[in-house]
Amino acid sequence: MVDDLNMLKNLSLAEQLARAARLWKSVANQELTPLGLTQSRWVALWKLQRLGDKISQKVLADALEIELGSLMRTLKLLEEQNLIERHCCPHDKRARIVHLTDSGRELLKQIEEKVLHVRRCMLINIDEAELSQLSKTLEKIAHNAQENLHHPE
């Protein structure tokens, strides 16, 4: 009985994590929708910028933790919006390199302002020590999950 109760508490923590992430995404989407971007598009742009631009589609998909096929539609739409360009890699003709256009860089400035605003709103009344501890704890949970995925018992 005690083990069952502990299991329910652990499940509750997972549910809380999922809920907080879902709500954060919803707030961010609400803030970014006026820019004409879906979540998949602004996240792809954000990650592309953070990775330093001019990277392969495969590297971007891996960084986003999605399948390359799932990323392709998003990249096509971003390209149609003139926010990115894709070119063949000079060293490997099978690979496609993605890079931001000037329009993409300009839009990213607006995205950055909005994302930082969302972050400030979401973290209001949370002091630096709490935030630091939360970050460390989440990193440990992610590490444990990866270990379990690579070395299941």
TrEMBL record:
This is Transcriptional regulator SlyA. Keywords: DNA-binding, Transcription, Transcription regulation. Residues 10-143 form the HTH marR-type domain. SMART domains: HTH_MARR (SM00347). Pfam families: MarR_2. It comes from Vibrio ruber (strain DSM 16370 / JCM 11486 / BCRC 17186 / CECT 7878 / LMG 23124 / VR1). One of its GO terms (molecular function) is DNA binding. InterPro entries: HTH_MarR-typ (IPR000835), WH-like_DNA-bd_sf (IPR036388), WH_DNA-bd_sf (IPR036390). The gene is slyA.
